[in-house]
Amino acid sequence: MDFATIIGLIVAVGAIGGSFVLEGGHLSSVFLLAPMLIVIGGTLGATTVTTSMDTVIRVPTFLKLAFSGKSRDFNKTINALVRLSEKARREGILGLESKLRYLPDPFFKKAVQLVIDGTEVTALREILETEIAYIEERHKKGIIFFQKAGGFSPTMGILGTVLGLIHTLSNTQDASKMAAAIAAAFIATLWGVGLANLFFLPVSDKLRMRHEEEIAHLELIMEGVIWLQSGENPRNIRTRLMAFIAPRMRSQEV
After folding, report:
1. What is the pLDDT of residues 104-132, one digit of tens each?
2. CA gap 231, 48 in Å, rounded
3. How far apart are CA 243 and CA 77, in angstroms?
4. Could you tell me the CA-to-CA distances from 246 to 70, 75, 119, 251 in Å, in that order?
5. Among candidates 162, 171, 166, 170, which has minimal Cα distance to 189?
6. Which residues contact 245 (CB under 8 A, 6 or more apart)?
7. Of 2, 28, 189, 211, which alpha carbon lies 20 to 30 A from 136's?
8. Where are the alpha helices (DSSP H) in the chain?
9. CA distance 205 to 213
């Protein structure tokens, strides 16, 4: 569970909702079906038009990644690469085959398997860079989906408010009820702006952060495996790969 995402949402929604209640408002007045239907349904519909059904089907997966994705342990990966390098120097590249089943990351396993298979270094880099490029494209679909939803949501809120005002001004005969009806019409704008800035855009940015972290991790694996193949000294491999980690996060564990 990503506590930063959960805590951030609770603090933001709590601050806004709490302020509204402190000013004498009632939260029940915000949860109106019509404005919510216009904003949520309209936003999801418009966003779906801009993408593919495959991306829409994967939305729950994107949300799971944003709310429960785990950070990559760069130090652990570096230690694994160094140990593989030491084993390769002692037993040769073919000696790495016994370690494949202990590599949980599919990309890491594929990279080491290519080395064992004797893939030439230029071809190895090209294959792994192509794999990373396709992973980037898959990640961007989720990022862009929520980014676009964050753009459509306020507009749908304004549309809902306009529709509410049209209905109010054309049907309200009692002037004393008109103020309450106009206030209710603006609930759609509240939902549109609120969902954009408290949910859609933050989720998009969280997915972008996850994406950048994973790509950095994959690039670390790629560089480490290439240096492993070239027979680089394990100590030098560790020193070079430490450049991927902030100094305060570096570990010297072997």
Report:
1. 889 999 999 999 998 899 999 999 999 99
2. 50
3. 13
4. 18, 11, 32, 10
5. 162
6. 74, 75, 78
7. 2
8. 3-22, 33-36, 42-49, 53-57, 59-68, 74-91, 106-116, 121-171, 175-185, 187-195, 201-229, 234-241
9. 12
Name residue 148's amino acid.
Answer: K
Instruction: Annotate 224-239 with b (16+ C-beta within 10 A) or e (fewer).
Output: bbbbbbeebebeebbe
- Its sign, for the CA torsion 17, 23, 29, 35, is negative
Please say whether the beta carbons of 221 and 77 come within 8 A. yes
* DSSP codes of every residue in 133-157: HHHHHHHHHHHHHHHHHHHHHHHHH
DSSP 19-63: HHHHTT--GGGT--HHHHIIIIIHHHHHHHHTS-HHHHHTHHHHH
In one letter, which amino acid is 57?
I
- Reported as a single tens digit per residue, the pLDDT across 157-200 is 999 999 988 888 777 676 667 777 788 889 999 999 999 999 99
- Supply angle C-alpha 25, 27, 33, rounded to 5: 125
* Radius of gyration of the chain, Cα coordinates, nearest whole angstrom: 26
Place of tokens 């690469």: 81
Q: How far is CA 76 from CA 66, 150, 216, 249, in A?
A: 23, 36, 14, 12
Q: How many CB atoms neighbour CB 6 within 10 A?
A: 12
Global pTM reads 0.85
